[in-house]
Amino acid sequence: MRVLVVEDEKKTAAFIRRALQDEGFLVDVCHSGDAALSAASAASFDAVVLDIMLPGLDGLGVLRAWRSAGRVTPVLLLSARGDVNERVAGLDAGADDYLGKPFVIAELSARVRALVRRAGDTKTTMLTVADLSLDTIRRQASRSGTAVELTTREFRLLEYLMRSPGRVCSRMALLEAVWDCHFDPGTNVVDVTIKRLREKIDAGFQPKLVQTVRGLGYAITIIE
Ligand code: CA
After folding, report:
1. Could you tell me the distance, in angstroms and rounded to a whole number, from the CA of residue 62 to the centre of ligand 1?
2. What is the distance between the alpha carbons of residues 79 and 69, in angstroms, rounded to a whole number?
3. How far is the CA of 6 from the centre of ligand 1 (A)?
4. Strand, coil or helix: what is 83?
5. Burial class of 190 by CB neighbour count within 10 A (0 to 12, 13 to 18, 19+)
6. Distance between Cα 52 and ligand 1 center (Å)
7. CA 88 to chain centre
8. Domain boundary residue among 83, 101, 119?
9. Same domain assignment for residues 210 and 104
10. How much distance in Å is there from the Cα of 7 to the middle of ligand 1?
11. For residue 210, which of 53, 55, 152, 198 is within the disulfide window of CB 3.0 to 4.6 Å?
């Protein structure tokens, strides 16, 4: 389950990220409305936590753009001003829920869980790329029908890559999303885990699915 958090206050964003990761969500963070639009067109999310007050395009602008483009991802709006007019404007713009700041983090987590659960009926929990399948509920992976045993970290890495097949993910993006590491740890932990993943899902199979894009990062896709 992947959540996008859009909040320009870095401490608040980090706090929300941590809480949602503790709930088992994969979390991407953006600090502006424009970055949120790019993130949402590059990947699919199960829910979005969207702050209204953002530099440049604000949260309501982002939400209107998504809804007019037919994007139905559930959105929890956050606002420093808990006034009724803003709440109404948010719901009119297509928000699914609304939370005023300051909020209790447990309430935010509970609301995100509820949004994801409500959307769950229409959501894909079975990810596939070629003959590689990932069942995100049962936490099972298989290639050509053969079960593949993965560690929790390998599973999270593979899920992150398979949620947007073909997207090249940088080492830093993977460190943040999978390891919750927001600085360069100076180790090759991503490369090592990718190597193990490759041994498990690509060795002995064709086509190869784990791709290295030199200088950029990694992707899961079929190279024609
Ligand atoms: Ca803000």
Report:
1. 13
2. 23
3. 8
4. coil
5. buried
6. 7
7. 27
8. 119
9. no
10. 5
11. 198
Query: The domain that contains 152 carries what CATH number?
Result: 1.10.10.10
What pLDDT, in 10s, does the model give residues 143-200?
999 999 999 899 999 999 998 888 889 998 899 888 878 788 788 999 999 999 999 9
Calpha distance 196→202 (Å, rounded):
10
Number of domain units in the chain? 2
One-letter identity of residue 196: R
Complete edge-to-edge strand list for the sheet that includes strand 140-143: 126-129, 132-135, 140-143, 146-148
2 CA distance to ligand 1 middle (Å): 21
Token readout for 14 is 């980090």
Range(s) of the domain holding residue 96? 2-119
Question: What are the backbone dihedrals phi and psi of residue 187, each rounded to the nearest 5 degrees, phi first?
Answer: -125, 170
109 and 34 housed in the same domain: yes
Give the pTM.
0.57
CATH value at residue 92: 3.40.50.2300
Tokens 């790019």 locate to 38
